[in-house]
Amino acid sequence: MEKLSSKINLNILNGIADLVRVLDSDNQVIFVNSAMEELMGASAKEMTCEPDGRYFCNLSVAERTLRTGEIIQREEYIEGNFYSVKCSPIFDGEEIVAVVEVFRNITMEKKLQREIINKNKELATEMNEAKKIQVGLLPEKGFIGGAMIDYLYKPSNILSGDMFNVFEINRDNLGIYISDTVGHGFASSQVTMFVNFMFKSLTTKALLNPATALEEIKKKFNSIDLDVNIYFTCFYGVYNRKENTFKFSNAGHNPCPILSRNRTSYELLTAGLPISRMFEDVSYEDNVVDLFCGDKLLFVTDGIPELKNSTGETYGLKRLGDILNRHNVDELQEIRTDVVHFTAKEPKDDMTAVLIKIM
């Protein structure tokens, strides 16, 4: 021990809460600090390292450090506890004369780590189940109420803040809405379900008047008393196939739907504020356009037009209108292909597009 006295400050080692031991060149314990001595109930003189691995002995690691000079970090499970063990060489000049091993008890960290992993697994399971419910709320593609329905729905996360629906109000009228909740994840997905439920709970009279429907949804949403940072936009319209009209109102949704007719397209612009506790005293207004056989209405959330390529150029609405004007079949697949080509990668934001063709 005299040879090592200049290399080790025993007072410092004894003051360390971690377990510390020193093994000589014969791989025998020559020092244990106070923490290890208290735990083991034995001093260095009384402690031996047996080949069966008891008493904190892993001879092969210390032997390797003595031979190579490596600093080795490992984990060991000893008598019901996990330890992070660091084995370092002690030099006398260029000669390795001993190794020092520090045992840090990480049992609590391991327990917390397992709990976090298990909680994450539970959360992932719950989110996957919520995703099934969310996807189950989407309408069927195909012919409904004098229109052909198709859509593209690609959440950026397991759960989406985007939601839409197409539903028959009565014999002559078809309801169509698209909404976008701020953020992604569980909270925003719950808002999408709230919106879906609210449309199903409204009276026929309210559903036939988009501005009234949005005002009732706003009133109910604000009564929940959620954080002001949770809000959503919603564009809602009613297609009357008997009168060939589309009555619509907007609660802050941007962009508004694109109407494509005879190879020309334009946006159905209308003002309105998002549904949020920040905006209590707001009202919405109805607008009406005529629709004809062959017309197309494209509803999208901001995830598509706000995409940027490597040069910072924004995808925009014009490209969407041009695709609608050029193609009469597989328009949404054309949009998907064009988006990937434009960005040169899979988009990270929610991508939602709903196409209504008037038959």
What's the short story on this structure?
The chain has 359 residues and is of the alpha+beta class. 30% of the residues lie in helices and 30% in strands.
Q: What attributes does this structure have?
A:
alpha+beta; Beta-Lactamase; Phosphatase 2c, domain 1; 2 domains; 6-stranded antiparallel sheet; elongated
Give the helix/strand layout.
Elements: H1 10-14, E1 19-24, E2 29-32, H2 34-40, H3 59-68, E3 72-78, E4 81-92, E5 95-105, H4 107-136, E6 142-144, E7 147-154, E8 162-168, E9 173-181, H5 186-201, H6 204-207, H7 210-223, E10 232-240, E11 245-251, E12 258-261, E13 264-267, E14 287-290, E15 296-300, H8 318-326, H9 331-343, E16 351-358
Write a structural description.
With 359 residues, this protein is α+β, with helices and mostly antiparallel strands. 30% of the residues lie in helices and 30% in strands. It is built from nine helices and 16 strands. The protein has helices at 10-14, 34-40, 59-68, 107-136, 186-201, 204-207, 210-223, 318-326, 331-343, and strands at 19-24, 29-32, 72-78, 81-92, 95-105, 142-144, 147-154, 162-168, 173-181, 232-240, 245-251, 258-261, 264-267, 287-290, 296-300, 351-358. Helix 5 crosses helix 7. The mean pLDDT is 87.
